Amino acid sequence: MSRARSVLHVAAALLLVHAAAVVAQEAAPENALAPTHDPLAVPSVSGCGDCGDCGDELGCCNPVSCGWTASAGAIILHRSAAKRALLVEDGTTDEELVNVADFDLGFAAGPRVELARRFDSCWEIGLAHFSVDDWSTARSLSDPGNLRVPLVSSSPSDYFDTAAAVYESQLYSTELNLKRRWNDQVRLLAGFRWVELHEAISAEAWSPDLEGSFDARTGNYLYGFQLGADAILWDRGGRLNIDSFLKAGIYGTHTRATLRGQGTYFELEGTATNGRTSFLGEIGLNANYRLTEHWSLFGGYEVLWAEGVALAADTVAAISGGDANELWSGGAFYHGTLTGVSLTW
Predict the structure, then answer these.
(1) Pairing state of beta strands 240-263 and 186-207?
(2) Band (73; pLDDT cuts 50, 70, 90)
(3) Which of 95, 105, 275, 312 could be joined to 201 by an S-S link, Cβ 3.0–4.6 Å?
């Protein structure tokens, strides 16, 4: 399913890219300009029309300011720790042995691609997608006849020999942004973003006379608009430059939580849905090194956080605390690096 979601995001992205390409072709004149031979220069391209109301004070009428840029690379993100909720305890001392917050999802990597079309009137339209779907961690215990697993059995007299739990998480993001040059260093942006955050916690326990399993899954579908800016922090006209970006938006979120459990003395299955407003913010720093007239390498660091989402750990906390509101008010924090190669033409 995670691969299918990523393919769906990419398919939607390709449709938007095609639409942008059609618009760009219709706006492009038939004449072409001769390419520059300076290996450090941004390549000249055809397809530049009138300067529009941007004016030439920002250099937007320079024919080298329009064209296409495509980039591909990898993003490596660390997922923050989950909310505290009991999973396994000692049957003799009532000591907490495993808590949801003990799971360290750590770092996971995924692909990141972007396509942008620059226009000579200080405008740029860009489409970006990334997916990270390999966060997974597990814990297991063995203490014959002395383990209590509340998710599997709430009876204080039920003791298990072994217990195991797995926590998984996936994140997908696709965004379409329109950028407008503000001055020589800063561009403002506004765009639409589609984000999916999926999580799951599964637990199972066993003893010769008693066994059971529990599975909690959440799916968050965020759709909304974002505002932001990117800025050049350092550029001496050579091969290396450093820039930063900031994006934030308010999203309409559809959330779905599914609970399933089965054991020697019970069976459980239920689904809950909710609609609410969520926040998503992202900030980052990138370094770009131009290899040739067309090719560049880039690398950077970024932070992304979401508030108002349902996480698998929140499901466990809501069941343990008896407060359903905990299920819909979670937050996730991510940070990590991105690296790749870009082509400009």
Answers:
(1) unpaired
(2) very high
(3) 312
